[in-house]
Amino acid sequence: MTAEWLAARAQLETALGALLASAQPVADCLPALTATAFATPAGAPGEAVSAARREEQTLLEHALCRVLDGLMREAAGARALLMEARGEEVRRLLAAGLSLCQAAAIEPGVVYTLLEQLLEGSTVPDCGAVVAWMEAHREALKGEPLWQRGKLILLRACNELTRRLSRAAHAHVVLCGRVLLLLAGLFALSERSALNAGGAYNRGNVTVWEAREAAASGLEAGAEAEEGELINEEFYDSVWRAAPAPCHPLNPA
Fold first, then answer.
1. Claim to verify: residue 36 and residue 8 sit in the same structural domain
2. Domain count of the fold of the chain
């Protein structure tokens, strides 16, 4: 990297810092940012991006990632939760990245790279706030061409997050469910990665339950559990009797 390139990136980081600190809406601050970032005019829609324009895009993408990294480091140095200490700035940075991707000012997948960077380097409570941002901007995230360029990045980041979550902690289980619901809302039912193209079934997933006739249950229909909730034993039995069917749908018996 040349000194000139590094100086231009530092100038963009300063402009991004001003955007994060501004009280104006992000959309009102973007023209000043793009004026700082781009000296080369954008080509016509469908036209190949020139080398000079692409270099300017790369500078802006680097600056976005570096500013986010700086916010994360500052929060970690202060031993504070990122989304509590610098949450507003993080949200403004994500909003700026999303708007720039939608305007084709930078690569469409950059906003997903920012989200992955956040999820990888944040605590579980911070990840919950990041997931909340994604939930609020789900329709924008699944828009084209952003989705085609970033869906695998998001899938990888969400899979890594769910691996970090504990099955014993209630807050972790809830967050895992939110992540899975988010992915279900983003990915189409026809998405190949979600299809069982090979027709393989998990026959080893055997569910063992106490049938209604088992004396060990010791409960009558309509009895109350310790928590005071009514138990419909017939419904319970019907639900779990259906569990083996998805394991081998061609031979549910």
1. yes
2. 2
